Amino acid sequence: MKKNIRIAAGQGFWGDRADAPIVQVRNGPVDYLIMDYLAEVTMSIMQKQKMRDPNQGYARDFIPLMREIIPDIVDKNIRVITNAGGVNPLACREAIFDIARDLGFKDLKVGIVYGDDIRDQVGDLIESGNFLNHMETGESLQSVMDRLYSANVYLGAQPVVETLRQGAQIIITGRVTDTGLTLAPMIYEFGWEETDYHKLAAGIIAGHIIECGAQVSGGNFLAGWKEVPDMAHIGFPIIEAYPNAEFVVTKHKNTGGLIDLRTVKEQIVYELGDPTTYITPDVIADFTTIQLEQEGKNRVWVKGIQGRPPTDSFKVSISYADGWTSLSKLTFAWPEALEKARKADEILRQRIKDLNLDFEEIHTEFLGVNGCHGPLSHPINEPNEVILQIGVRGYHQADFLRFGREMVPLVLGGPPTVTGFSGGRSRPKEVVAFWPALIPKKLISPQCDVKSL
């Protein structure tokens, strides 16, 4: 058993800093590189890509990244764990093998974790009485069956642990939880059991702290963003984990950013519901038991975490087509910019009514006034300019095309001092809606497979 391991976050979301994983493996010692690519909307995007091309359906920017760092991870014996496999981990692995051949690495072991994609099983599940009811409304999934894009179970750390035991140096998963990616190497290295609930909870919280990448090392930092040094070269976080389930949140010394009690606390409360009951596939973590201590510069010690047994269900992330949406913008200049924008909004709404356009929702924002806080926004003095942004959502595509033709006439037939009309009309985009559900764990069989060239 190792004294400690260093788990580096290299990706907080699909589209994050492309050079962050490179910095993590080259600028200091790490044992594991963790990269999180998935969110609810990305699963639907990947599923649509796979429908068009069976060789797609994974995070494609992961491939050129691995071409860059495979020599580093092989030389330094760094293991990579990522959910970049999306809805097609097998194709993602084949792309990695192509790179390994090009680079001359014939013994590279690449594992995949799958079994989370249940889209093709949904019909059978419903017929057998597992209706995948919406967690908030209770409605049966049958109501949107004809519009499904994706259905993926949130798997936990255990299948990743098994893949590590089989010797994989790169592990590509489907929908494994963000926190499970970080927990898995702790279970593997320290020999934690599935009933070590306090230790598992600590691993989950470690994963939660680094799952958003630079957000814990000074990015998006409300309490003191002006204090963060060199944000252009912000360092991504590293978990220095110990067998007793205590850990340190830190980063490489020669990078920008800041890790202190405030940055860690802000990340801890990110996307948090009941802090006593943070439910994951592996364990229920109690965030109220977390103890933090500033150990030194850019080093926060975390300890005291407690956990409870997990539930008997997995959460399922389901996406489906839910109509269309369109956004249009016009800019109004001083004087009386806000009053002009409001008048233009009034005109547009009247035109929608006159033309009998059928929309489920019409939403207006005045950017520069209430775009962030909506009705909670405070009145402001005369702004220099205001952008009218109006969005509509519905199910009849022809109505969106007609609505789009109503923006440009406002240039000469509405309030004065308008600009921005060249980009004022946007094409309708398909709405992809999210359907959360639960499924008994006994119905899901996560699988792993390790191969080398």
Task: Please give a handful of descriptors for the protein shown.
single chain, 453 residues, alpha+beta, Alpha-Beta Plaits, 2 domains, ten-stranded mixed sheet, six-stranded antiparallel sheet, 12 helices, 19 strands
Strand portion, in percent?
25-35%
How would you describe the shape?
globular
| Low-pLDDT residue spans | none
Radius of gyration: 25 Å
Structural class: alpha+beta
For the largest beta-sheet, the strand count, sense and barrel status come to: 10 strands, mixed
Number of domains: 2
| Rounded average pLDDT | 95
In DSSP terms, counting alpha (H) and pi (I) runs of 4 or more, how many helices?
Answer: 12
The total count of strands amounts to 19
Task: Name the strands of the widest sheet in spatial order.
Answer: 11-12-8-7-1-2-3-6-4-19
How many angstroms separate the termini? 29 Å
Quick rundown:
It is built from twelve helices and 19 strands.
Fold and architecture overview:
The protein is α+β, with helices and mostly antiparallel strands. Helix content is 28%, strand content 26%. The protein folds into two domains: 5-114 and 154-311, no CATH class; 320-432, Alpha-Beta Plaits. The chain has helices at residues 20-26, 40-52, 62-76, 89-103, 122-127, 158-165, 178-190, 197-210, 261-268, 337-354, 397-404, 410-413, and strands at residues 5-11, 32-35, 79-82, 109-114, 148-153, 170-173, 238-241, 247-250, 278-279, 284-286, 291-296, 299-303, 306-308, 313-333, 361-367, 385-394, 418-419, 429-440, 447-452. Strands 11-12-8-7-1-2-3-6-4-19 form a ten-stranded mixed beta sheet, with helices on both faces. Strands 5, 14, 15, 16, 17 and 18 form a six-stranded antiparallel beta sheet that branches. A hairpin with a 5-residue loop joins strand 7 (238-241) and strand 8 (247-250). The chain is globular. It starts with a strand and ends with a strand.
